[in-house]
Design goal:
This protein has two domains: 159 residues, no CATH class; 85 residues, no CATH class. 73% of the residues lie in helices and 0% in strands. It is built from 13 helices and no strands. Helix 11 runs parallel beside helix 13. 28% of the residues are buried.
């Protein structure tokens, strides 16, 4: 366990990539013992119960043709690159959809529950920011849907509401549903106390989404509504968000004016 904690601390600062995904996958295997890894080593993934678990209950991409999914998950892919990424998708899906509710270590009464859940959240992080972009850049829609479904399933097992809502917001951001993304990012902020170390991170996530949507007025209104609750420790950082809201708005308006002249 001590070695795993050291690995976890090192991986916390790793930049997201396929290599970091593989390293966190190794940590998950070490943390949750070898009986689960034996299942992961089966590249065919022909267990119908696992596949049924992966496809049921999706709330955002509708009914899935199960026969087609069998083909996607079980075929021998001739393109080596796609096969390697596809296998990573299957492993991530198996872990995030099934492991949190199936493994005894993830029972809240277990004395190492907190660390196990931290490892799984780290694995989600590298799956989302390291693995998912490789799929999106190649427009592999089936693999993307399967992975996003597992993220949503995983969020149901995350005990911390702030983290749960953040994960759901990221899922809908990847789908392109900014309205639901905003709702979940806002919910994550609302359940996070201003004294918590994640508060400014949650606020910046919501603020950056509004800027990306070019909702500068809403971004400023959000910041001003929270001004009185900001701790002295975060005040300088908070004021910088206000300043950058005006800067980003002006830069956007300059681009609009330049485009209109052309």
């Amino acid at each position: 366990m001590k070695n795993n904690i050291q690995k976890y601390q090192q991986l916390l600062v790793e930049e997201e990539s396929l290599e970091s995904f593989d390293a966190v996958l190794d940590l998950v295997t070490d943390t949750f013992l070898v009986e689960f890894s034996a299942t992961l080593e089966n590249e065919n993934f022909s267990d119908s119960d696992l596949i049924d678990n992966w496809v049921k209950g999706s709330e955002f991409y509708g009914e899935v043709n199960k026969e087609e999914l069998y083909k996607i998950l079980n075929r021998n892919l001739k393109v080596k690159e796609k096969k390697e990424i596809n296998i990573r998708v299957l492993k991530a899906t198996a872990i995030l959809s099934s492991l949190p509710s199936a493994h005894p270590f993830t029972e809240p009464s277990n004395n190492i529950y907190s660390f196990c859940m931290d490892v799984l959240i780290l694995f989600f992080h590298h799956s989302y920011f390291g693995l998912l972009p490789k799929i999106q850049s190649r427009d592999w829609s089936n693999e993307k849907s399967t992975l996003l479904h597992s993220f949503l399933n995983f969020s149901n097992d995350v005990p911390d509401d702030s983290e749960k809502y953040r994960i759901r917001g990221l899922v809908y951001y990847a789908i392109g549903d900014y309205e639901k993304t905003f709702s979940f990012f806002k919910a994550a902020l609302q359940v996070t106390h201003t004294d918590e170390h994640d508060y400014m991170t949650r606020l910046q996530t919501l603020w950056m989404l509004l800027l990306e949507m070019h909702e500068f007025k809403l971004a400023l209104e959000l910041l001003l509504s929270l001004y009185s609750s900001i701790t002295r420790e975060h005040l300088d950082e908070f004021n910088e968000l206000i300043r950058h809201t005006f800067i980003e708005q002006e830069n956007f308006l300059k681009k609009v004016r330049k485009h209109s002249r052309n």
